[in-house]
Design brief:
alpha/beta, Alkaline Phosphatase, subunit A, 9-stranded mixed beta sheet
Length: 315
C-alpha cells in the first residue's frame, strides 16, 4: 500500500460516489420480487451483460441540479461532468432523504415517508434489496458509511446519520449480525479495501457524513471531499482491471425542485455524453440490474427506463 493510501486511512474520511436525481411519476406498487426479464420495457440500449466488473454509487445530499452544474463552488464535480456522462433530466422520487435511499436500493420507498431511525422506530422493512440479488449472483457488496462508529451501527452518532445508510433498514441484514458486520462498515475501510482487487467489492454504496455530503456543510466542502477520494476509486487496481462505473448523485433536491444531477464516471462511462431523457432513482437501480443480469425488485424499477446509453460499450 502506498504512503498516500495509508495517510487516507488515518484520516477516517468517507467517500460517496454516485450522483443521481429525477422526478418520479411511477406509482409505488409494493416491493414484491419480480421474475420478469430485466431487459424488458427498457427505453435504452440492451444490456452488456456482466461486462462491468465494479459499480460504485456515491450519494450526496439536498442540492438541486442548478445548484451543482456550472457552479464555481464545485470545480471538481464540474470537471467530472465535463469529462464523463451527465443526466440532465434526472430526479429524486420523494422527500425526505430516507425514502430516496430505499428507492435506490430496493425499488420502492417501502411505505416509509419520514427519516425514522432503526432499529427501534418501527421502520425496518422486510423486502428484497439489491444486496440480496448481488450476493445471489455471486458478486460482493459493501456499504461504506463515513463517521459510523463501528460495523453495522444503527443509531445516529455525531455526523453519521442512519437515514443515509439504507442497508441498516433491511431486516435480513440488520437482524443477521455476521452479515451486517461484514458488509456495513465505516468509510475508513474503503481505502484499505481498494488496495487489492481481492478485497474490493463489486458493488459499493458510499455514504459521506452530514458535512461532506453537503447536508450540513457547503457545496464547496462536499466538492473538496469528492476531489480527495474519487480519484482513489477511479485509479484503484480493481477499477483499472475491468470496465467499471462510479455514479455520483444526490438523494433529493429541495422542497420546490427535486431535479438532481446524476454523473456517470469511470472507464465504462461515455466521455462528454449528455442525455435529456427523463430518469430517476429507479432508473439507476434498473441499470445496475440490467448490466448484471438481475431481476427487477419491484414494478417501479422494472418500468423505469434504463441508463445504459451512458455506458461506453467499447470498453
Amino acid at each position: 500500500m502506498t504512503a498516500s493510501l495509508l495517510t487516507l486511512m488515518g484520516l477516517g474520511i468517507a467517500a460517496t460516489v454516485f450522483i443521481v436525481s429525477i422526478h418520479h411519476n411511477v406509482a409505488i406498487k409494493g416491493s414484491k420480487k419480480s421474475t420478469i426479464n430485466p431487459t424488458q420495457n427498457s427505453s435504452e440500449q440492451n444490456s452488456t451483460s456482466s461486462r462491468l466488473g465494479y459499480i460504485f454509487v456515491i450519494v450526496e445530499e439536498n442540492q438541486p441540479y442548478n445548484n451543482i452544474v456550472n457552479n464555481p463552488q464545485a470545480p471538481y464535480i464540474n470537471s467530472l461532468i465535463a469529462k464523463y456522462a451527465l443526466a440532465t433530466n434526472y430526479s429524486a422520487v420523494s422527500h425526505p432523504s430516507l425514502p430516496n435511499y430505499l428507492a435506490l436500493t430496493s425499488g420502492s420507498t417501502d411505505g416509509i415517508a419520514t427519516d425514522c431511525n432503526p432499529p427501534n422506530a418501527g421502520c425496518e422493512v422486510s423486502v428484497p434489496n439489491i444486496a440480496d440479488e448481488i450476493e445471489a449472483s455471486g458478486r460482493s457488496w459493501k456499504e461504506y458509511a463515513e463517521s459510523m462508529p463501528s460495523n453495522c451501527y444503527a443509531y445516529n452518532s455525531g455526523e453519521y446519520a442512519t437515514k443515509h445508510n439504507p442497508f441498516v433498514y433491511y431486516s435480513d441484514i440488520i437482524n443477521n449480525q455476521p452479515r451486517c458486520d461484514s458488509h456495513v462498515v465505516p468509510f475508513t475501510n474503503l481505502i484499505n479495501d481498494l488496495s487489492s482487487i481481492n478485497s474490493t467489492p463489486n458493488y459499493a454504496f458510499i455514504t459521506p457524513n452530514l458535512c461532506d455530503d453537503m447536508h450540513d456543510c457547503s457545496i464547496a466542502t462536499g466538492d473538496a471531499w469528492l476531489a480527495k477520494y474519487v480519484p482513489f476509486i477511479l485509479q484503484s487496481k480493481a477499477f483499472s482491471s475491468k470496465p467499471s462505473l462510479l455514479i455520483i448523485t444526490w438523494d433529493e433536491g429541495n422542497s420546490t425542485d427535486n431535479h438532481v444531477a446524476a454523473i456517470f464516471t469511470g472507464s465504462a462511462a461515455k466521455n462528454g455524453y449528455r442525455s435529456n431523457n427523463p430518469f430517476n432513482h429507479y432508473s439507476l437501480l434498473h441499470t445496475i440490474e440490467v448490466e448484471w443480469g438481475l431481476s427487477p425488485l419491484t414494478s417501479n424499477d422494472k418500468q423505469a427506463p434504463t441508463m445504459t446509453s451512458f455506458l461506453n460499450t467499447n470498453k
